[in-house]
Every structure is written in structure tokens, then in C-alpha cells.
Amino acid sequence: MTAGIVTIRIGTTITSPTSGQVLTSTSLTLTWSATGATWSSFHIFLDNQFVIWVGPDVRTYTLSGLSYGAHSVKIAAFDNVAGHPAIWSDPVSFTVSGTTTTMTSISGGGMRLPAAMILANATAAVGVALATVRARIRFSAILTRKCAVAPARVSSQT
Fold first, then answer.
1. Residue pair 41/61 in contact by the 8 Å Cβ criterion
2. Which residue pairs, CB below 8 angstroms and at least 24 apart, start in 81-85?
3. How are the residues of the chain apportioned to helix, strand and coil, as percentages rounded to the nearest 5?
4. Domain of 66?
5. From CA 30, how far away is CA 26, in angstroms rounded?
6. 149 — phi, psi (to 5°)?
7. How far apart are CA 103 and CA 118, in angstroms?
8. Regarding beta strands 21-23 and 92-96, do their DSSP bridges make them parallel or antiparallel, or are they unpaired?
9. 54: which of 14, 58, 88, 120 fits an S-S bond (Cβ 3.0–4.6 Å)?
10. Residues 70, 137: one domain?
11. Global confidence as pTM
12. In this structure, are 88 and 21 located in the same domain?
């Protein structure tokens, strides 16, 4: 009689994003499959930092507010009922690509900020400036009415 080898794969596999994927959005819908056990929870890690744990029936999670640049995501599956330790997925690397604008300070140094942040701050600054101008005009009009002096009459003699 010949003995055979049976391989049973247990754990999680990330199905989206794919390794090396370039995203143009700062949100990512992470999806995965899980096999071989009755999992009690999944723990999601972004750039080796714990993000959240989700229940056993969840197979997607949306990561929002991702910064531009390279990232890595992985999932740990837990089976607390059978006493299995965490089974880790292979990490998947991806990049968030986006537009940045360089702002130069008076001293000549620079910092990179997302264009949306610059636009939002500029819009807020314009709103404050307009409110300031309106207040000064109202104050000036009040002063003109309260302090108005009749013009002096000048007579000419010829």
C-alpha cells in the first residue's frame, strides 16, 4: 500500500488589490478569501499597523484616507474556537498615486501638500478675507454717518 500526501491550505488570501497595483484614489476596497477553518475574526493591517478587526462573515473592507505613496496590507485570520493561532496572509504592496503641488515658503524651503488641501485652504482664506472687507466697509459706513460734518461754505469775493 502506498502512502499519499494530502495538503490542506488554511488561511487567507488577499484578492484585491493585486501586488504592485497603482491606485488613483485615496480609498481602497480590500477583499480576501478564507479557507480551511471556521474563522472567528480577521484583523487588517496597513503598513504593519493594526487598523481594525472584522467578524467571521466579512470578506471586504474599505480603507479610506490613504496617503500618497507606497503601502502594504495584510490580514491575520483567527480561529479562537479551535485554538488556532493567527494565520497571516501574504502581504500585498500597492501605491497611491496623486497630484501634489509644491508650495515654497518665504525662506525658500518647500513642502508638498495635496492639491485638494491647498484648494480648500485657499477657499477658506478667501472667505475670511471677504468677511473682513465687509466688516471694515460696514464699520467705515457707521463712522461716516455718526461723524459726518457739514462741509464749510466758502464765499468768494470779487
1. no
2. 81/38, 81/40, 82/37, 82/38, 84/10, 84/37
3. 20, 40, 40
4. 11-98
5. 13
6. -120, 135
7. 9
8. parallel
9. 58
10. no
11. 0.57
12. yes
Q: Scan for cell 494530502, then name that residue.
A: 6
Strands 21-23 and 49-54: unpaired
Grid coordinates given for 36:
480551511
Please tell me the total count of domains within the chain: 2
Domain-embedded: residue 131 = yes
With a CB cutoff of 8 Å and minimum separation 6, the contacts of 17 are: 23, 28, 30, 73, 92, 94
CA 26 – CA 120 distance, rounded (Å) = 17
Same domain assignment for residues 17 and 92: yes
Q: Is residue 127 part of a domain?
A: yes
Show pLDDT as tens, one digit a residue, over the chain (158 residues): 555 554 445 678 899 999 999 999 999 999 999 887 778 899 999 999 999 999 999 999 999 999 999 999 999 998 877 766 778 899 999 999 986 544 444 344 454 545 555 555 555 554 544 455 455 555 455 545 554 445 555 555 55
Task: Tell the residue number behind the cell numbers 477658506, with chain if given.
Answer: 124
Q: Are residues 142 and 119 in the same domain?
A: yes
